[in-house]
Amino acid sequence: MSKHAPFKLFRMDISYFSGKLESYLNYKEIPFEREEAHHTVLFDLFKKTGTMKVPAVKTSDGLWLKDSTPMLRWFEKEYPNNPVLPEDPALAFIALLVEDYGDEWLWRPAMWWRWMPKGSRRLMGYRIATEVLGSLPVPTFIAAPYFAWRQKKTWLDWDGMTKANHDQIRDMYTDQLAALEPIFKRQPYLLGSHPSVADYGYFASMFRHFGNDPESSIVMRQQAPAVYEWLSRMWYRTATDLGPEIQWQWPEGDDWGFILGDICKTYLPYLHQNALAFKAGKKRFDYAANGLELPSTVTTDYRVWCRQELQREYQRLSDQDRQRVDEFLAAHGGLAPLFADGEIDAGMDADLTIPFPEREPRSLLTLLKIWAFGTARNVPK
Questions:
Q1: Are the CB atoms for 300 and 283 separated by under 8 Å?
Q2: Which helix (H) or strand (E) holds 287?
Q3: Which residues of the chain have pLDDT under 70?
Q4: How far is CA 2 from the centre of its chain?
């Protein structure tokens, strides 16, 4: 057991990344206590961590963890048994690449299926209002429509969605289901017998959004029951249940072709174009690659950091393992966009180094902006 245990997990049941981290902690059988993040907890998190975001974790010795991706890596060092990263360095890199794609690219269709269908938008607006506001004396009939409007505008209308690409964003979800269904019909997890970081990257959107939201969950149950079953395995199976003998598999086959092609031809060019916009000081940029255009989409410094991390992971590989990765991905478009224009520094390494003691809170003005308009896009999750 870690010297920092037990842990307190600050989470929300509606939260994309809360589900990812909670599933991981359950699987690894890491001791933790849940704390629901209503408004008073969120304000306290803002004071302690500098951001009003969940999940966040407090250690027994008063340190803090934030951002699901660094947290998984930190917990892996503290609890090395039953690893979620394959021993093969080349396959481990592929797993991290898939995790990042699942985390950061499926966010957009997850927002579409939560906030575009009217029934889902009304229900989820109500859920956010009741979960966040708690006992605050704000009428739900006012707060719920406001949160629904805010989320739709912030994550879709003001972030590159247009009439021209509306259907493409919607169909990102069903395209994923079509690729994932045959994989989960033949094996329990994405890379074999046990969950990997790739599974947790996908789980974030597939569980809290696609698998639970009213419209998208119907689609999943009807079109991809094996994916729906995988969500259950991810939520309740523990390392003890599955045993210590892990059999990893490379992501090969026609069904993987769509996913790997989308990573190389659509997502990695997005990371590249976003990094260039960040370097140029642009708050927005016009993304275009592989038949998809996102005009005036928001430049995100966190995803510049994600790109840096993938570049660093690749550089840590031996020459032989780099060659294996390159040869494996060549048929799907390759890694050229990941390295185009070199490394662009997001300037976020210090902020994402965990664990850390309590931090100086941001200004009251920043707090009020976050409360009124949502957590700033360029803040780690």
A1: no
A2: strand 284-289
A3: 135, 360-381
A4: 25
Give the model confidence (pLDDT) of 176-224 as tens digits.
999 999 999 999 999 999 999 999 999 999 999 999 999 999 999 999 9
- Beta-strand pair 7-11/32-36: parallel
What is the reported pTM? 0.94
For residue 87, give Cα distances in angstroms to 84, 247, 324.
9, 11, 15
The helix (run of H) or strand (run of E) holding residue 195 is none
Which residue matches tokens 């947790």? 200
Class of 1-81+352-381 in CATH: alpha beta
**Residue 289: burial class (beta carbons within 10 Å; 0-12, 13-18, 19+):** middle
How deeply is 19 buried, as exposed, middle or buried, from its count of CB atoms within 10 A (0-12, 13-18, 19+)?
Answer: buried
Owner of token pair 């994550």: 155
Place of tokens 């079509």: 178
Cβ pair 48, 1 in contact under 8 A: no
What is the structure's pLDDT at 46? 86
Roughly what angle, to the nearest 10 degrees, separates helices 16-28 and 225-236?
60
Work out the burial of residue 31: count CB atoms within 10 Å of its CB; fewer than 13 is exposed, 13-18 middle, 19 or more buried: exposed
- Quote the pLDDT of residue 363: 60
- pLDDT value for 378: 47
For 62, the 3-state DSSP assignment is: coil
